[in-house]
Design goal:
It contains eleven helices and twelve strands. It has about 375 residues and is of the alpha+beta class. The chain is elongated and about 100 Å long. About 5% of the residues have low confidence. Bound molecules: zinc ion (ZN). The site of zinc ion has 8 residues, from loops.
Length: about 375
Amino acid sequence: MNQYFSEELAQKVSRGLHESRMKGHCIGSVPFGYTKENNKMLTINENERKVLQRIFEDYASGKTILQISRDFEQEGLSNKGKKFIPETIRYILKREIYTGICKINGKEYNNIYPTIISKDLYDKVQKRMALTRYGCRKDNHEIFRIKDKLYCGHCNRKMYPFSTKSHNGNYLRYYKCISGRDNGCLTRITEKNFIEGIVDKFFKQQFTIQKNLDIITDLIYEENKKRTKSNNSLCCLKLDLHRVNTAIANIMTAIEKGIYTETTKSRLEELEKQRKELSEKLVIEESKVSYELTKSDIQNFFKVTMKEYPDKAIDLFLKFVKVYQDKIEIGLNYSINPNDTDYQPIKTYAFTETLEINRTFKGGTKRTKTLTYEVYSVI
Ligand SMILES: [Zn+2]
């Protein structure tokens, strides 16, 4: 497995690990709504603040995320040149930093991000988001978890989300081959929960094999070590702070000697302000460094996070799923050398899964069909 697990993927996982540990507080970049000049503290970007205010207010007053996204598109409102897609809006609505509160390592800071959204409005939005689990329409496509990665093995074309309402009012969800029966497709349709269940089972199996886990862990560990080492800003901040402290000490000596003018007073105030700002930044940078991960952190990530958030595995490792009449192929992102043209995919048998379909026809006739699929991994 190690030869398939590229450095690039290790980097991606390492990033994912950091993100999942630091959920909701991206410190490295400047979030939408704020501006940062040189080494100064963040300030509010007035134009972006208005957009944020509207997103929160529109959502709280009953608009769906999809409606907001469409409104913005019609009005030509963009997110630094990019469209406000529903995923972006949902991400924004969840960010607590807009209330001025930022949590790092379990500690709360209220002096890093200036407040844009009131606590009341934020709470109202969270309440509504918890009620409408997916944030959008009831039958939103977002709940189709492998929608961009599923292909029909027979036609080699994409399979699309598709749902109908059954006679008892429940939604029946499928993925459907774009070709359809008329074009000779034999796969045609597959049940959403069945195929997604197979993907989850497959990843669970992959990450519970200790040998696999050890290889992945070693690679990510090394990658992460490189990441945490390259922290230059911490050194710069420490130097700056030292310089400011020395300057303050010098002025204090001068004051003790009786030299106290308006200039020394304002200079001292200026330096003390700088010292406060630098100390705050230092806290943030130091919290980043303390994120050096241990091997058991990484193993726990796979054991716990992958189990609790299976979508993370899909996002990071799943390249494609191909459904045939009697087999399913799961393509993985563990690329060898993407430039190697002689590369032959390696197929490995994983497990066999059966699906029983019970149908009740008009008049009450019942019929059961059993489908059997062999599941393979493809690297
Ligand atoms: Zn097809």
